[in-house]
Amino acid sequence: QPVLTQSSSASASLGSSVKLTCTLSSGHSSDIIAWHQQQPGKAPRYLMKVEGSGTYNKGSGVPDRFSGSSSGADRYLTISNLQSEDEADYYCETWDSKGIWVFGGGTKVTVL
Amino acid sequence: EVQLVESGGGLVQPGGSLRLSCTASGFTFSGYSMYWVRQAPGRGLEHVSGISSNGGSTYYANSVKGRFTISRDNSKNTLYLQMGSLRTEDMAVYYCTRRSQAEYYMDVWGRGTTVTVSS
User: Fold this and answer.
1) Taking CB atoms and an 8 Å cutoff, what residues of chain A touch B35?
2) Which residue stretches of chain A have pLDDT < 70?
């Protein structure tokens, strides 16, 4: 089954940018992933899907400053013009052909 | 507005049972596969169980297989999770989620219901 690896934490200053990485395990480098945001004390929220080609499609209402990209087995979530409300945990998600779903361990983003 | 509202969480003793419900609105419930995802205190997210749009196919994580049963009533726009033989490690917030029609990721989340397993 696929494994997703995320850094445990990231930080950046208010108004700057931060780029989060989700790395797919061997044999899954072309797989699609989804990014989810979980603000403190709230339920997760779907942000976007990112394909191996780098194409991304955002969910309804997701601000323009959120974007996705891809390189090899890495899938990225970039947050530009970082705002205080972007302080949250960010999880990536994927699945395989056998019907197994997995989440990455999550990255905690701190806005300085 | 697309919405998922969970209910049924609470305090239960180890070995006990509980049934969670999730009421959907704002979309054609019968057209979507639905899932339960849980989050233990201070931990990450874990897919628990899923069911196809017509209820004919189900998915269970190894950690709950044989103890939990997922079902749905499309006439009531409601998803269920019957949980049995509960363990302390089942203690978590349980989220009802909708699976995207185009791909296999979860594209709508409920607010969650808390299950506490303790004597």
Assistant:
1) 101
2) none
Q: Which two tokens stand for residue B92?
A: 């978590």
Q: Cα A52 from chain centroid? A: 14
Q: Where are the beta strands (DSSP E) in chain B?
A: 3-7, 10-12, 18-25, 34-39, 45-51, 58-60, 68-73, 78-83, 92-99, 106-109, 113-117
Q: How big is the A-B interface in CB pairs under 8 Å?
A: 53
Q: pLDDT for B4-29, tens place per residue?
A: 999 999 999 999 999 999 999 999 99
Q: Does A33 touch chain B (CB under 8 A)?
A: yes
Counted residue by residue, chain A has a size of 112
Provide, rounded to the nearest whole percent, the portion of chain B with pLDDT above 70.
Answer: 100
For residue A102, the surrounding DSSP H or E stretch is strand A101-103
pLDDT-derived band of residue B55, with 50, 70 and 90 as boundaries? Answer: very high
